[in-house]
Amino acid sequence: MPKIIFISANGTERTVEAAEGTTVMDAATQNLVPGIDADCGGSAACGTCHVYVDPAWTGKTGPATPGIEQDMLALTDNAEPSSRLACQIRMTPALDGLVLRIPANQH
To answer: Is the pTM of this model over 0.85?
Structure first.
């Protein structure tokens, strides 16, 4: 199974496995990754699964999708060019080792 490395705002790393096709948000919540609240359950309606994609991975994850994801990110605190909603990233073998940073605040 592909692995995801989550890095918290204080630098703590947590590696989790994610089944192919699973969203990054689901992998985080199933593994109790702190900082991924996922209040809306993955409908891209809250922004509480906001992550920063490591620059080495942005080419593989792509940018935030136009419409709902970009609109929601515009409402989140501390959005950056590498910001994505974890509920909108689906795991594939090409994303094995994906590195994501978690913002200090999700609200």
So the answer is: yes
> Domains in the chain and their CATH numbers?
3-101 (3.10.20.30)
Q: What is the pLDDT of residues 45-84, one digit of tens each?
A: 999 999 999 999 999 999 999 999 999 999 988 999 999 9
Number of residues that this document lists for the chain: 107
DSSP class per residue in 61-78: H-SPPTTHHHHHHHHSTT
| Strand 50-53 versus strand 98-101 pairing type | antiparallel
* Burial class (CB within 10 angstroms; exposed 0-12, middle 13-18, buried 19+) of 28: buried
